[in-house]
Amino acid sequence: MPRIYLVTGATGFVGSHVAEALAARGDRVRTLAREGSDTGLLGRLGAAVVRGDLTDADAVKRAADGAEVVIHCGAKVGDWGPVDDYRKVNVEGLRHLLDAVLDKPLDRFVLVSTLGVYEARHHSGTDETEPLPASHIDGYTQSKVEAERLALQYHRKQRVPVTILRPGFVYGPRDRSVLPRIAARLRERSVIYIARGRYALNTTYVGNLVDAILLAVDSPAAVGEVFNVTDGEFVTKRMFFEAVAAGIGAPRPKGSVPVWLARFIANWRESVFRKKSKPHPPRATQAQLKFAGLNLDFSIAKARTRLGYAPRVGFGDGMKAALDWYNGQEQS
Predict the structure, then answer these.
(1) For residue 1, is pLDDT > 70?
(2) Which of 13, 67, 178, 307 is the most exposed place for a label (fewest CB within 10 A)?
(3) Residue 63 and residue 81: Cα distance in Å, rounded?
């Protein structure tokens, strides 16, 4: 019998793919969407839309009423701005959602987090036993650490059937944020490799992430657990940037700086921008250093063994799908 799923963030990148997969298998989808947001795809999927946002406890309660499964993809993302702005959505908004399902018959509450919660350092095979830092490099990752702790607290004390997934860099069709920015910087020739681009990028194709989410919903072994989710491939930064450059017809990046110099520049520019209270980030930030310069290799052994997760789409095919969609948007 079809279940009722509340999918937050369903007007966005990951959430729209989750809603689409659920509708395809015959489940009933409901979402919370801000006033004025584009819900055209959701309408075509037959999803029910409750207008409001995560900061509105009453709207959250209406959206959660009767839901049997919650898949929480909604979040405030970014690498700049006051941490309290991120907490308002990513922590307090999550609290509204958790409170809304207390003492209700709920099969699963899947929180989509991020591998960014781990310390901003080189990683090689890091797994879920790694403790998370108390403080982080930006408001987004700080708030996501706090969100994970809140969700697990509700599991332990209130018996909410929580599962946390930590994807890496998510790419694929409908990415209207990261890929367009990278493409623009490649076209203007402002991308420079860090450490010659030899370190790993924690790529996670959006379809693989959706598979992991559905496994987390359906597996009893997932309750109370945290899982890393990637494509399971060693993809270097150079491989990634060259694939994007080739796909959009842009020149490949040239030149390289060492990690220590990139870190110095990022710290310096962030300090200058904060002193001037700039509303936007500098070109070089600690978050960008992590993305482009640190080795981000994480183990997905737990997801493989406990969930039966097996990435279906490799980096080559996933990037082709992402670029085909992006190029189609550019031409339309």
Answers:
(1) no
(2) 178
(3) 29
Calculate the CA 156 to chain-centre distance: 24
The C-alpha atoms of residue 263 and residue 194 are separated, in whole angstroms, by 10
Domains of the chain and CATH, by start? 4-168+205-230+297-312 (3.40.50.720)
Query: Looking at residue 304, what DSSP letter applies?
Result: I
Both tokens assigned to 304: 């493989």
**Across the chain, what does the average pLDDT equal?**
94
CA distances for 157 relative to 70, 83, 96, 140, 144, angstroms: 19, 26, 16, 26, 20
Full DSSP string of 122-135: -EEEE-TTSPPPSS
Task: In whole angstroms, give the CA distance from residue 170 to residue 302.
Answer: 19
Kindly write down the DSSP assignment for every residue of 56-102, as one continuous string: -HHHHHHHHTT-SEEEE------S-S-HHHHHHHHTHHHHHHHHHHT
Question: What's the chain's length in residues?
Answer: 332
| Residue 318 CB burial class (10 angstroms; 0-12, 13-18, ≥19) | buried
Is the pTM higher than 0.90? The answer reads: yes
Phi, psi torsion values for 157, nearest 5 degrees? -95, -30
Give me the residue label for tokens 């997969």: 21
pLDDT confidence band for 276 (50 / 70 / 90): confident
- The string of pLDDT tens digits covering residues 106-149 is 999 999 999 999 999 999 999 999 999 988 889 999 999 999 99
